């Protein structure tokens, strides 16, 4: 139950929902691309991505100096349900 609570809290933010929607469409994106798309600073976007990563909704891959994010391959049913409607 605790994991569901953490996931739902992470998704209970408009910016983070925008990030998830963007990653759902693009499959993968750098922090800079995500920040540009949601019209938010790099630092604020990184904070939102950190919350989503902490809830196991996104995963990060470091490539050279850039970080790329994608939706986690194993999402809970609750997260899948929320993502399916956005």
How would the blueprint of this fold be written?
Layout: H1 2-11, H2 14-26, E1 29-30, H3 31-38, H4 42-54, E2 58-63, E3 66-71, H5 77-84
Antiparallel strand pairs: 1-3, 2-3
Task: Describe the structure concisely.
This protein has helices at 2-11, 14-26, 31-38, 42-54, 77-84; strands at residues 29-30, 58-63, 66-71. By secondary structure, the protein is α+β, with helices and mostly antiparallel strands. The chain has a 3-stranded antiparallel β-sheet with strand order 1-3-2.
Keyword list:
3 strands, 86 residues, alpha+beta, 16% strand
3D architecture notes:
- The protein has helices at 2-11, 14-26, 31-38, 42-54, 77-84, and strands spanning 29-30, 58-63, 66-71.
- It is an alpha+beta fold and 86 residues long.
- It has a single domain (2-77), classed as Arc Repressor Mutant, subunit A, CATH 1.10.10.
- Strands 1-3-2 form a 3-stranded antiparallel beta sheet.
- Strand 2 (58-63) and strand 3 form a beta hairpin.
- It is globular.
CATH topology: Arc Repressor Mutant, subunit A
Rounded to the nearest angstrom, the radius of gyration is 12 Å
- Indicate the low-confidence ranges by residue numbers: none
Question: How far is it from the N-terminal to the C-terminal residue, by CA?
Answer: 23 Å
CATH first level: Mainly Alpha
Biggest β-sheet strands, sense, barrel: 3 strands, antiparallel
Q: Name the CATH homologous superfamily.
A: Winged helix-like DNA-binding domain superfamily/Winged helix DNA-binding domain
Give me the secondary-structure category: alpha+beta
Shape: globular
Determine the mean pLDDT: 94
How many domain modules?
A: 1
Instruction: Please provide the ordered H/E string of secondary-structure elements.
Output: HHEHHEEH
CATH architecture: Orthogonal Bundle
The fraction of residues in strands falls at: 15-25%
Instruction: Identify the strand order in the major beta sheet.
Output: 1-3-2
Q: Helix tally?
A: 5
What's the count of strands?
Answer: 3
């Amino acid at each position: 139950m605790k994991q569901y609570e953490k996931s739902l809290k992470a998704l209970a933010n408009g910016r983070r929902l925008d990030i998830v929607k963007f990653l759902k469409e693009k499959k993968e994106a750098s922090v800079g691309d995500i920040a540009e798309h949601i019209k938010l600073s790099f630092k604020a976007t990184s904070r939102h991505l950190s919350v989503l990563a902490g809830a196991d909704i996104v995963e990060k891959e470091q490539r050279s100096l850039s970080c790329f994010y994608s939706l986690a391959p194993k999402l809970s049913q609750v997260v899948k349900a929320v993502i399916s409607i956005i």
